[in-house]
Write a structure and sequence with these properties.
The complex is a heterodimer. Helices cover 36% and strands 14% of the residues of chain A. Chain A is α+β, with helices and mostly antiparallel strands. Chain B is α+β, with helices and mostly antiparallel strands. In chain B, the strands form 8 sheets. A 7-stranded mixed beta sheet of chain B has the order 10-12-8-21-18-19-20, with helices on both faces. The chains are: A alpha+beta, B alpha+beta.
């Protein structure tokens, strides 16, 4: 039995402790907002927060999440009103949308640690997240907008 | 039924919170500022929809649902196609609910996403659907109020009769309207009176995307659903010989391991039934991770497949060679084929004599590798097949193309097959090919259970259906005064060539020859964003650039000169481009980029233009060298796709095409060694990333009132040529072979 705290809820699950957190979220707990893209920590579609840090859930064993707080895109904000979620809609960032949850989760850690990121800061923080549709410019401008919103 | 208080009813819907039916639910308070905002959940109204026609349903409470007919893969048709309906319907965009339509080609038309066709294909039918519904609602009001229909007016989802002061919502008359005879020859709006189309509307699924709602095929769940994966051969040209699944079956959660044939001998494949591996080794289990793990325990023997014979499209037999190909041998073979006589596609004038008499001949050869689509959502499909019927749910660009094959494979009538289209995590052409849907269906049939077939990233990248490997040799003949007197393109590919014989510069040169050849291969290929054009716009546009330089001309002026000739005195009859519109995007990008302005001299500038999929696009890219690497810093883009339906989303599309183009031009490559793909995941296949994207992309549209054509593909190809031109400016060397980063690194090391 493994006990997890995900989006402030407690889950008791029977699962092999080596199972990547990604597949526990998607297949066992039915939180499918966290995406599978590569399985080898290359694309960032699966980024979640583990005690406030961005981790690639596809290579994070579920055992590592025990006793820690897991936050997924579904739990990023109470009413889907995190500044990044608002900014993403305001800038109409998405094309296919598949990678965007991972992008937002990476950006959320950046904004928490850096209230006023420069383009360079964003490049450094976001280079691990692939967007195949090429929405990088809008991602960047949405992060800047969210930083502004956060100040208010 | 007069003076319906629609607002109160609408608000009461806002309170409901359950999400069902795939409708929009944007009931969060902070969202009230943008459209379509405050759109209610539609679950409670499920029984009360009155269908005015296949695209439009209205409740008595005046909630208007518009069904999007075409699969969504990021081109934003979920928003832009319903905008067209809303425009003619005269409905308030704020009150519209958008839902993905079912697969129903009788009611919803061709339902095909590809070839940048959505707008072109649906522009008229959707306008007519909206206008017809409006007319029927007016008729229903006129009958109810006993007034002439000519005196009934509409505004924002309301009907009015001015003389009597009567009014009512569309919803109030939906029931009556749905029973009326459908009128013919309904008048459409004047373009200048549009107030939905040409106004930017936010993605109707934007909130669902940023909040992680289950939208994609991979997110779909079904009671009792099992997970299936396929172990395919490690190399093209190999097939399954035998396997031992003893250890796999001991693994937790594993239900079944079996061999499955996709097409039985002699099966007549449809035109899009590309399949790479016909003998499948299937592992079925409870969860994704259990199946991934159990696959590692398989003991499999593969063997050479040898030459195989397929029947494609009911027309022709295709022999697929069994050779295990390597990139080096492919290049060698291309060289051999390029020197042999080829098939003539077009000839104008007397190119042979012109080349014989030339004062100068310029000849250049270009290459481009196979490319993998690498959709962020790997291939997957849900299938639940029983003896009586089949339910299939997942990401697919062309359900209508897959259904007939599915019916044959499952031995079920087409009306017993239901295909539901989920939002696609990218497509780029790959999801027009239904092999993964057929595989899922056959697996479900075999295990007699609902099954989700999932490709891992490695499965996806090594399965084939790539952009072909291309080459082309261009020759130009100049006379003593440096006039262009003849042009020759000879293109080839594995297994298809890219030559568009009737495209520019055909029609602009007196002596012209286009030829092509192809090398059969077992490496499967398929449509990849702007098929063929995505290579031509690299090779041909680079060649024109080099030609302009040899002739001492500005590269834009040289192209405009050729286009002037093509317009005023075209050579040949089958020139399939409009020289005016082509010149239009070049002139626009020249102006907007400040082409000859001294302040832009600090950039290494490349330019290219191309016509494909009925639209025109041109780019100027400004490149810099930073830390020894090439980066595109700024891009100026011009496009002519007629009326732009949803401007901001269209800009997003062009920006994406530019980034995608830069990424594939610089880094994209799928190579082979003895049949095996050398790139299996993003650790080996380089994708463009945030820090490599331009800092600025400025998009401009040619303003006209022409019926809209596509935009998903046209801006993509010319990026390649423009990038090549900019690289030349930095290095002083022409870049002939993609991915360009390979040559860049070679130059840097010498």
């Amino acid at each position: 039995m493994i006990t997890l705290n995900i989006n402030t809820k407690t889950y008791n699950i029977e699962v092999d402790p080596d199972t990547p957190l990604l597949w526990v979220l998607r297949d066992v707990i039915n939180l499918v907002g966290t995406k599978y893209g590569c399985g080898v920590a290359q694309c960032g579609a699966c980024v979640v927060h583990l005690n406030g840090e961005a981790v690639r859930s596809c290579v994070t064993k579920v055992s590592r999440a025990v006793g820690k707080k897991v936050v997924t895109i579904e739990g990023l904000s109470a009413n889907n009103d995190h500044p990044l979620q608002k900014a993403w809609i305001e800038k109409d960032v998405s094309q296919c949308g598949y990678c965007q949850a991972g992008q937002i989760m990476s950006a959320a850690v950046l904004l928490k640690e850096n209230k006023n990121p420069t383009d360079q800061d964003i490049d450094n923080a976001m280079a691990g997240n692939i967007c195949r549709c090429g929405t990088y410019l809008r991602i960047k401008s949405a992060i800047h907008l969210a930083a502004e919103m956060q100040k208010k | 039924m007069e003076n319906i208080e629609s607002k109160q009813n609408r608000r009461s819907f806002l309170k409901s919170s359950a999400l069902a039916g795939g409708g929009l639910m944007l009931s969060f308070t902070w969202l009230s500022g943008f459209s379509p905002a405050g759109v209610p959940d539609v679950a409670d109204a499920a029984g009360d929809w009155f269908e005015i026609n296949g695209y439009i349903k209205i409740t008595p409470d005046n909630i208007i649902k518009i069904l999007n007919p075409n699969p969504e893969f990021g081109q934003n048709v979920m928003t832009s196609l319903p905008m067209i309906v809303a425009e003619e319907l005269g409905a308030d965009w704020q009150n519209i609910v958008v839902e993905m339509g079912p697969h129903d080609s009788v009611k919803l038309g061709p339902q095909f996403t590809g070839g940048s066709n959505s707008m072109r294909m649906y522009w008229k039918p959707l306008r007519e659907a909206g206008a017809t519904a409006r007319q029927m609602l007016m008729e229903a009001a006129a009958q109810t109020w006993s007034v002439p229909i000519e005196e009934v007016t509409t505004n924002s989802g309301m009907l009015f009769h001015q003389k009597t002061g009567k009014s009512g919502t569309y919803g109030a008359f939906a029931s009556k309207a749905s029973g009326l005879t459908v009128p013919k020859g309904v008048k459409l709006k004047e373009v200048k009176s549009f107030n939905v189309v040409r106004n930017s509307k936010k993605n109707v699924e934007g909130l669902k995307i940023v909040s992680g709602k289950p939208l994609f095929g991979l997110d779909y769940k079904h009671e009792g659903m099992l997970i299936a994966m396929i172990e395919h051969p490690p190399a093209f040209g190999m097939k399954l010989k035998e396997f031992d699944a003893t250890e796999t079956l001991k693994m937790p959660g594993i239900k079944n391991v079996f061999r499955q044939t996709l097409y039985e001998n002699g099966f007549e494949q449809g035109g899009f039934d590309t399949r790479t591996f016909n003998e499948l080794l299937v592992v079925v289990g409870n969860t994704t991770w259990e199946v991934i793990n159990a696959r590692k325990k398989l003991k499999v023997t593969w063997e050479p497949a040898g030459d195989t014979k397929n029947t494609m499209g009911g027309r022709r037999e295709v022999i697929t060679p069994g050779e295990l190909e390597s990139t080096s041998t492919q290049l060698q073979k291309m060289k051999e084929y390029a020197s042999k006589p080829a098939q003539q596609l077009r000839k104008d004038g007397d190119p042979e004599t012109a080349f014989k008499n030339a004062a100068q001949i310029i000849e250049r050869t270009y290459h481009a590798p196979f490319l993998a689509h690498n959709c962020m959502e790997p291939m997957n499909f849900f299938a639940h097949v029983t003896d009586e019927k089949a339910l299939l749910v997942g990401p697919l660009q062309a359900p209508g193309w897959s259904e007939p094959t599915l019916a044959k494979l499952l031995n079920l009538p087409a009306d017993k097959i239901e295909i539901q289209m989920t939002r696609m995590g990218g497509g780029f052409g790959l999801r027009a090919y239904g092999h993964y849907l057929y595989e899922a269906a056959l697996i479900s049939k075999k295990v007699k259970a609902p099954v989700k077939l999932i490709y891992t990233r490695e499965d996806d990248m090594t399965y084939g259906i790539y952009r072909p490997m291309y080459t082309a040799t261009y020759r130009a003949a100049l006379d003593a005064n440096k006039n262009l007197i003849a042009f020759h393109v000879k293109g080839g590919g594995i297994p298809e060539h890219a030559v568009h014989a009737n495209r520019f510069p055909a029609g602009a040169i007196d002596n012209y020859l286009a030829e092509a050849w192809q090398i059969p291969s077992n490496i499967t290929i398929g449509a990849f964003r702007a098929p063929r054009s995505n290579f031509n716009a690299a090779s041909e546009q680079s060649f024109l650039d080099e030609l302009a330089e040899a002739m001492g001309k500005d590269p834009i002026d040289f192209r405009l000169e050729l286009l002037k000739r093509a317009k005023e005195n075209p050579v040949g009859k089958n020139n399939d481009y409009n020289a005016d519109r082509y010149a239009g995007v070049l002139e626009l990008v020249k102006e907007k980029s400040g082409w000859n302005k001294p302040e832009n001299k600090k950039y290494n500038r490349g330019v290219a233009a191309y016509f494909c999929h009925n639209s025109y696009a041109a780019h100027v890219v400004d490149m810099v060298k930073r830390d020894g690497q090439p980066y595109v810093e700024r891009v100026f883009s011009a496009a002519d796709c007629g009326i732009v339906i949803n401007p901001d989303a269209a800009i997003n599309m062009v920006e994406g095409a530019v980034v995608d183009g830069i990424g594939n031009a610089l880094y994209g490559a799928l190579t082979h060694k003895e049949g095996a793909p050398e790139q299996k995941n993003f650790s080996q296949y380089r994708m463009i990333r945030c820090n490599e994207a331009p800092k600025k992309i400025e998009v401009h549209f040619v303003q006209n009132d022409l019926d809209p054509t596509g935009l998903g593909e046209p801006p993509f190809p010319p990026v390649f040529g423009a990038v090549a031109g900019a690289l030349y400016k930095i290095t002083g060397k022409r870049f002939y072979n993609q991915p360009f980063i390979t040559q860049w690194n070679t130059l840097s090391n010498t």
